[in-house]
Amino acid sequence: xKLLIEWLLAFAFYYPLFMAWLWMQGAGHYYxxxxxKDPPLDQPPALPYPPISVIVPCYNEEAHVRxxxxxxxxxxxxxxxxxxxxxxxxxxxxxxxxxxxxxxxRLRVIHQDPNQGKAVGLxxxxxLARHEFLLCIDGDAVLDPYAGxxxxx
Length: 153
Known about the structure:
This protein is α/β, with parallel strands linked by helices. It has helices at residues 2-33, 65-73, 93-103, 118-128, 147-152, and strands at 52-58, 80-87, 107-112, 133-136.
């Protein structure tokens, strides 16, 4: 019994240590064989990129939603749409999204009432998205202008 306990404790200590070492080796291998040959981050490769739908679920994001949608609409990508899901917000998130949708034709807004959670918001947007590929971000996140191209590469 004592030997079993010692073996389990050793396993609990050495297994995470070994796995961390293995993951670091895999990351180094991936970098040496793939990533170091990539162009600079602000110069993504010129490829035939398929259209994407950027989905932004929002719940009480009045303070951040204008900036988040602004960055999503500023993507350097050939063909995309932005779908913002107002998930029953209690603040002015819905009104802000409606105002932004009136200004930007790429933006579509879906209003859910009452709050049903992020998963339901994402699934609703998935059903209404025009494109097969989705780029999902949070309501308080900002996108790099080249994020779509790098992710779709």
